[in-house]
Write a structure and sequence with these properties.
Number of helices: 19
CATH class of the largest domain: Alpha Beta
CATH superfamily of the largest domain: Glycosyl hydrolase family 115
Number of strands: 43
Distance between the termini: 27 Å
Largest sheet: 8 strands, mixed
Helix content: 25-40%
Strand content: 15-25%
């Protein structure tokens, strides 16, 4: 297994530079690791004995407390028994007594908790009056007849529930125990460290998920498992949200789902447990969209059918009653579409005003006392951009572009709004350019960067994420909700550790680091391009060995994942398959299939008999995809998750999914009856030699002593049977990995140079390929000269530099450079913090990065800057950076130049950036002479995320990821 890219960071000279890196694994503030958990399996002085010598401390809950608290206390009772084998008593009446007890309650609802607060035995002041806040505190002699207590207390219903579930997680019960079959981490004894334990008040008020795009997978699974999206289903969802310290839900809403009408218990149970239910961006006033269709109420048009709509909305508010909710206001078109072709601001203002009148009339309170939200989803942002505003108490829910890129953030002058701002984010999407729903393709690093940006700019009222079918978005869902609790507590340096801690939470500490590395690399590889958009032509088979390199990465990862699987106990196997092995193996297989199809096409054109082999290989991998799905559905976990991986993902021809998976097209060739020998050279110049209609290059690329390249000669059979071949180097300085053999399909021979024997300066040698009928002479050009070279060295007409590999970095008093480990398609990314820093003027004193490089021939060249596809969230002329070579005047590059059409209209610039998960900006430069130079990058605006730089001196070839990193010389 290769070393994770985020650990391969070379530090250059750092001047006044505060860099945050993860060369080891720093402690993460959100998940409990062994170092920061308040639970121990070892007894010690002053520790509270939760379970000791087979006896569990009794759990006391006041029967007058919230019914949801009593329900969740029962979950803790079961969790303690699962972990330790000892079941505690759960007592809801009577006076607490015993040597050691657990006291659970809500301030203001539990007489016991209130008594302890009055007597100063718990630090209630750190919890009382706050939102969703809890603490666990050990107390000596808390009550008559009790020697020692662990007190779990909350500021409100949810606070207490969070405290209970926090203890459950700390003792070894994953929030994904049911939803991913994560085994409990068993321990015979459990002890709690003395003192006060609390993560404080959450920084983001509402933190939740949206179940969306749920057919066919989740819909069919829920129907088979629970009979539909009823309260039995939602009870599991609520528990999942609360165990992850979330508090908010947009329920499943694809037709024919209707949360309130389908099962009245859905809403009642949510309120009992403290989960806030709201309806989506196109379902105002507490009404599911399908309810309108069920009622045959006419057109969804406020201008022509306003009375029926107001009546419909009134029913929604009446039904909400006293349930805790956030009411969606505004109106979009029928079926998640735009309401009108134009932006009808006056009409929208009327709609919102009428909706607020209904809210006030039904509740008997001013409208501002009912929480409301206006979602700027897709075309709704156009209303906002053109001046539409809602009353100050209404939350403005900002949105990403459905692909994880934030579209707009608040201006400083708007931050005083009472209703505040929230963010609606996506891990799943049905829409253009192509839907992505099958696997997790979201790097937590990108989520961190974009949501930290949102937080810093003031979007703190609601963080909501579209999680599709819930599975297989387990990892990013946990991260999103963990991060939302306190974005200030998790730095970029904590991100690598998050993978380890999350893996440890699911599988225990022993293999957590290795599993975390697999997870980090899998999401990195998958985020390069969504599986639904992977095609035979995605990765280049010809240039930079790109396709083979990508397959090598996936194969290494699969070997590592399978090796770990063999080390895990039986209890972990189902969870490991769901969370780790299936995503890795299915992704590897998918890429194998598409690359095989690409080779089938290319090799057929080259006259290789092996084209047929790759046609069969394509089919084999296509069939394996179905087999992996079958195992997931019917054998893993005894069929518990049948249907969950049924989303089609192969054969997309437009944005929507095909009805069935469709194998990539392949073709077959009729080989000649007699075996024949053909060859192909790596990266050679235009093909010039012709034999029997096939075209062959007869010159390898130039070898130079600085880069010490290795190139291949592919030998292949053009017919049936086998063919003998020989290779002979005419010069002793040409080294061949093999000189003779027999080929049935194809064989690769590597060519390198022995520089100690090679002639000086420019020279040329020859390799002769001999087959049964004729020979071919291959020219081997070399350049053996001790040229001055430093930094990243030109190779094949390009210099490729990962942004994280800077030689020097300088900060300013207002902004510092920040490395985000593992972010991006190839290595790590570099941006600035704080993300709301003021615009800088490039030049002396501004934040600057420097990269030393060497070019050998050209003095005029282009620089391609690879950037994360950040949108112009400031809504100004565009985000900018500056670039120069040596002492050139800085060129200011607007990364949004020409991007005038909004993303929701699917313009070409946006389609390309989200398809490729990259934005490339080209600048032109001239230097006085070849040799050693310095690439300089200045910050102008925050939010620009650098991934890679490619200097093209004339040799850049088409590829998806760009040239691999160039050799670096100190």
């Amino acid at each position: 297994m290769k070393t994770p890219l985020f650990r391969e960071i070379r530090l250059g000279c750092i001047a006044g530079f505060r860099i945050i890196l993860a060369l080891g694994f720093a402690l993460c503030a959100s998940l409990a690791s062994a170092a920061d958990s308040y639970v121990s399996s070892q007894a010690g002085q002053g520790l509270f004995p939760l379970v000791e010598k087979g006896e569990a401390a009794a759990l006391y809950v006041d029967s007058a407390d919230f019914s949801g608290v009593l329900e969740v206390a029962g979950h803790l009772q079961s969790d303690i028994e699962r972990v330790s084998g000892s079941e505690p008593q759960l007592i809801t009446d009577g006076v607490a007594s015993g040597k050691a007890v657990v006291l659970i309650g809500t301030i203001g609802r539990s007489a016991t908790i209130d008594r302890l607060a009055r007597e100063g035995k718990i630090d209630a002041g750190k919890v009382s009056g706050r939102w969703d806040t809890f603490a666990l505190q050990t107390v000596e002699n808390p009550l008559p007849g009790v020697d020692q207590a662990l007190v779990i207390f909350g500021s409100d219903k949810r606070g207490t529930i969070f405290g209970i579930y926090d203890l459950a997680a700390k003792i070894g019960v994953s929030p994904w125990h049911w939803w991913a079959d994560a085994p409990v981490q068993t321990k015979a004894e459990l002890f709690v460290q003395p003192g006060f334990h609390s993560p404080g008040e959450p920084k983001v008020k509402y933190r939740g998920i949206f179940i969306n795009d749920e057919a066919p997978a989740l819909t069919n699974w829920a129907e088979e498992t629970f009979g539909g999206f009823n309260h039995q289903f939602y009870e599991k969802v609520y528990e999942l949200i609360l165990r992850n310290k979330g508090n908010y839900l947009w329920p499943a809403m694809w037709v024919p789902a209707a949360f309130y009408e389908d099962d009245a218990e859905n809403a009642r149970l949510a309120d009992e447990l403290g989960v806030v239910i709201a309806t989506t961006h196109h379902e105002p006033m507490g009404r599911a969209h399908d309810e309108w269709s069920r009622g045959n109420a006419g057109p969804w048009n406020y201008e022509t059918n306003g009375e029926r709509l107001r009546e419909f909305w009134r029913g929604g508010i009446e039904r909400l009653g006293d349930y805790e909710s956030v009411v969606t206001v505004g109106m979009r078109g029928d079926g998640d579409e735009a309401m009108t072709e134009d932006t009808a601001i006056d009409l929208m203002r009327t709609i919102v005003a009428d909706q607020r009148k209904i809210i006030a009339d039904v509740t008997g309170k001013p409208a501002e006392e009912t929480p409301q939200a206006w979602a700027l989803y897709k075309e709704m942002q156009d209303y906002y951009d053109k001046g539409m505003r809602v009353p100050d108490d209404v939350m403005v829910l900002l949105c990403d572009d459905n692909w994880g890129n934030i579209r707009i953030l608040p201006k400083k002058e708007d931050l005083g709004r009472e209703g505040g701002f929230g963010v609606y984010y996506h891990f799943d999407f049905v829409g253009g350019p192509v839907s992505y729903r099958w696997l997790n393709v979201t790097q937590i690093e990108r989520t961190w960067e974009q949501m930290k940006l949102s937080y810093d700019w003031g979007a703190r009222e609601l963080w909501l994420v579209n999680v599709g079918d819930i599975k297989p978005m387990e990892l990013p869902t946990s991260f999103f909700l963990d991060f939302a609790w306190n974005p200030e507590a998790m730095s970029a340096a904590d991100l690598p550790q998050y993978y380890t801690d999350w893996a440890g939470q699911q599988f225990g500490a022993e293999h957590a680091k290795e599993i975390g590395e697999v997870l980090s690399l899998h999401t990195k590889y998958s985020a390069r391009r969504t599986p639904e958009m992977i095609a035979p032509e995605t990765y280049s088979v010809l240039n930079y060995r790109e396709a083979d390199t990508v397959l090598g990465e996936y194969r290494d990862l699969l070997v590592q994942a399978k090796r770990i699987q063999k080390l895990l106990p039986e209890a972990s196997q189902a969870a490991y398959y769901q969370l780790v092995l299936y995503p890795v193996e299915a992704s590897c297989n998918l890429n194998e299939m598409h690359v095989a199809a690409a080779k089938n096409k290319l090799f057929g054109e080259q006259g290789r008999a092996s084209a047929n082999h790759y046609a069969e290989l394509t089919k084999k991998h296509f069939e394996k995809d179905a087999e992996l799905t079958r195992y997931y559905h019917h054998e893993m976990a005894d069929g518990k998750w049948n249907h969950m991986m049924s989303q089609t993902h192969i054969g997309y021809t437009h944005w929507n999914n095909p009805p069935v998976n469709k194998m990539p097209a392949v073709s077959y060739v009729h080989p000649t009856e007699a075996a024949g020998l053909g060859y192909a050279l790596e990266d050679g110049p235009p093909q010039v030699h012709t034999q029997g209609g096939a075209r062959y290059s007869n010159t390898l690329p130039v070898f130079d002593s600085i880069n010490d390249q290795e190139y291949y000669i592919d030998l292949f059979n053009t017919g049936v049977g086998s063919v003998d071949w020989k290779l002979k180097a005419q010069e002793d300085w040409i080294v061949l990995s093999k000189t003779a053999g027999t080929v049935e399909l194809e064989e690769r021979v590597l060519v390198r140079i022995d520089w100690d024997k090679a002639p000086q300066d420019a020279a040329s040698g020859k390799v002769v390929i001999s087959g049964p009928k004729r020979s071919h002479a291959i020219r081997v050009p070399i350049h053996n000269e001790a040229l001055p070279a430093k930094g990243f060295v030109e190779n094949g007409g390009v210099v490729s530099i990962e942004a994280v590999k800077f030689d020097k970095a300088s900060d300013s008093s207002e902004a510092s450079w920040l490395v985000v480990p593992n972010l991006g398609r190839t290595a790590s990314a570099v941006t600035v913090e704080p993300s709301n820093a003021a615009r800088q003027t490039p030049g002396k004193g501004a934040p600057q990065l420097e990269y030393v490089f060497t070019v050998f021939g050209e003095t005029e060249f282009a620089v391609d800057t690879y950037l994360s596809p950040t949108l112009n969230y400031q809504k100004n002329e565009g985000l900018k950076y500056a670039i120069a070579i040596d002492d050139e005047a800085p060129q200011i590059i607007n990364i949004h130049q020409g991007e005038t059409a909004p993303d929701w209209e699917y313009p070409e610039w946006w389609n390309n950036s989200v398809t490729d998960h990259i934005k490339i900006k080209r600048s032109q430069h001239t230097v006085a002479k070849p040799g050693v130079h310095t690439l300089k990058i200045w910050m102008v605006d925050p939010g620009v995320v650098f991934q890679k730089f490619v200097i093209d001196t004339g040799g850049l070839k088409p590829s998806y990821l760009g040239p691999p990193e160039s050799k670096y010389l100190d």
